[in-house]
Amino acid sequence: MARKDPYRQFRFRVEIDGISQAGFSECTFADTTTDPVEYREGTDPTVFRKLSGLTKYGNITLKWGITDSMDLHNWRQQVIDTGAEGARRNMSIILIDEAGADKARWNIVQAWPSKYDPPDFSGKGNEVAIETLEIVHEGFKRVS
Asked: What does the alpha-carbon distance between residue 117 and residue 135 come to, in Å, rounded to a whole number?
């Protein structure tokens, strides 16, 4: 039997409709949960049934070293200026193997940036200036 090692987490690509941004240093992909709803029938006073309730999707956080590109900042500014309705976009997060081939893909629908955090600056350090964007969405699905 051939051994199958798990994929590493450090090679990934993010695609956002209409935005070309390279070099994300971090992508935090939040979880999905479905709330349980307890229901008790009047004929059975001692047992609760567990029904499925609303499904919730956590936010996605992207971090990258600041460059001349204003695309992601402009997307956030669009939400500030005119609201999320015209700013919604679909996006994908793709896991890449060590040979550079796409191995897993999650498609995210109706995403828009809810928070932008510009970099902090310090004359004492030599770290890369990091921008952060928090993205809300209406669901994701792993398609490969």
From this structure: 12
Q: Quick one: 14-29+54-142 is in which CATH superfamily?
A: Hcp1-like (2.30.110.20)
Rg (the chain; Cα; Å): 20
> For the chain, which residues make up each domain, given as ranges?
14-29+54-142
The model's pTM is 0.85
Per-residue pLDDT of the chain (144 residues; tens, 9 = 90+): 787 877 777 888 899 987 877 678 999 988 899 999 999 887 877 888 899 999 999 999 999 999 898 999 999 999 999 999 999 999 999 999 888 899 999 999 999 999 999 999 988 989 999 999 999 999 999 999
